[in-house]
Write a structure and sequence with these properties.
Distance between the termini: 87 Å
Largest sheet: 6 strands, antiparallel
Low-confidence stretches: 5-24
CATH architecture of the largest domain: 4-Layer Sandwich
Radius of gyration: 25 Å
CATH class of the largest domain: Alpha Beta
Order of helices and strands: HEEEEHHEEEEHHEEHHHHHHHH
CATH superfamily of the largest domain: Aminohydrolase, N-terminal nucleophile (Ntn) domain
Number of domains: 2
CATH topology of the largest domain: Glutamine Phosphoribosylpyrophosphate, subunit 1, domain 1
Length: 363
């Protein structure tokens, strides 16, 4: 008796599914708190597709959660809700695990807004599985080559200083170097939250980056983070520095300003002749009032390197304007308007410069 086409297809499908499920789903993550700013965040790398949609959860002023192993994604929002009610991390984690009938398959890391942590690894997680916790952080992983991966993560986080995001990425780097699964990772994610830290201050997504499918996800994550730092963080830092000062959290404001300046200096050291970097930092230094003379110096250098770039010349005009050099600003912007008369940005800039020269002052 010949087997039906359906039966053959069914057997093949089951065999394929079994083969897929039998593969180790390696993953490691860190959940952490920044004692200087109160930021909380999660970083993760995995052999799974789109791990950023599964593992990390965080809310500014509340805490962060990483749910993995055979992840119960309900732990994420429920955990944040419990933290918001004032429960410490240990109590939240205990409650989540006790309420789950499949807890032996779960891994869970929680940090609250005071730096208290909870970590759990179920007995049925893919070996090697475990966690390692310290003040303000917990690292966890499953289907790893051994405990040295977690040991390297914990020690790296503890000895690394600076921004929480930089420390989280350094921790993933340490795990990546120690891991035996050098080529098996597929996705990675970085999430750091701060009150009003998101784009234009409307959300708490200070840093929210995902690489869903790549052969070198951590490398791509770090590349995108570099772009994020240059594009979004200067404005976010200055906005939240003002908020720290308003809240009389002067220590956090001072530390953030130091980090902002160091970040810019780091960019300049890495790319001293990149007109995009020079122009971007010049704009930030000028418009944020950090160092206007230095801003003009960098903008002039960018304009020498890329004399035909309208956006860079616009930055140069802005830097002159911020120093009260209205004639220079007007001359540069007038040329830009002549070249691109339909450009509304250049037209508004020119009007702003002219009004300031007529006695309105810097807007």
């Amino acid at each position: 008796m010949r087997p039906s086409v359906f039966a053959i297809f069914f057997v093949a499908l089951v065999s394929f599914s079994f083969a897929q499920n039998s593969q180790l789903e390696g993953m490691y993550s860190i959940v952490a708190w920044d004692s200087a700013t109160g930021d909380v965040g999660v970083a993760v790398q995995s052999t799974l597709l789109a791990v950023g949609s599964i593992v990390p959860y965080a809310k500014a002023g509340v805490g962060a959660v990483a749910t993995q192993g055979s992840a119960n994604t309900g732990f994420g929002n429920r955990g944040l809700d419990l933290l918001l009610q004032g429960m410490p991390a240990q109590q939240v984690g205990d409650l989540l695990i006790r309420s789950d009938t499949l807890s032996s398959q779960r891994q869970l890391g929680v940090v609250d807004a005071k730096g208290n942590v909870f970590a759990y690894t179920g007995t049925s997680c893919q070996q090697y599985a475990g966690h390692n916790s310290g003040k303000g952080y917990t690292v966890q992983g499953n289907a790893l080559g051994g405990e040295n991966v977690l040991k390297a993560m914990a020690r790296t986080f503890e000895i690394t200083s600076g921004d929480l995001a930089d420390r989280l990425l350094a921790t993933l780097d340490a795990a990546d170097r120690e891991s035996k699964e050098k080529n098996g990772f597929q996705s990675a994610a970085l999430l750091v939250v701060r009150d009003h830290g998101g784009y234009n201050g409307y959300t708490d997504r200070f840093i929210d980056i995902r690489v869903d499918n790549d052969t070198l996800p951590l490398k791509q994550l770090k590349r995108i983070y570099g772009l994020w730092k240059a594009t979004f963080l200067p404005d976010a830092r200055m906005r939240t520095i003002d908020q720290f000062n308003n809240d009389k959290n002067f220590s956090a404001a001072r530390i953030e300003m130091e980090r902002l300046v160091e970040s810019m200096n780091g960019e300049l050291r890495n790319k001293p002749d990149d007109p995009n970097v020079l122009s971007s930092i010049a704009w930030s230094l000028a418009t944020l009032g950090i160092d206007k003379p230095r801003a003009l110096e960098l903008a002039k250098r960018a304009a020498i390197l890329a004399p035909a770039r309208s956006d860079i010349l616009n930055t140069l005009a802005e830097c002159h304007y911020r120093l009260g050099n209205y004639d220079e600003a007007i001359a540069i912007e007038s040329n830009l308007v002549a070249k691109e008369p339909a450009n509304d940005q250049f037209w508004k800039q020119l009007e702003k410069f002219k009004e300031s020269k007529q006695g309105g002052g810097i807007k």
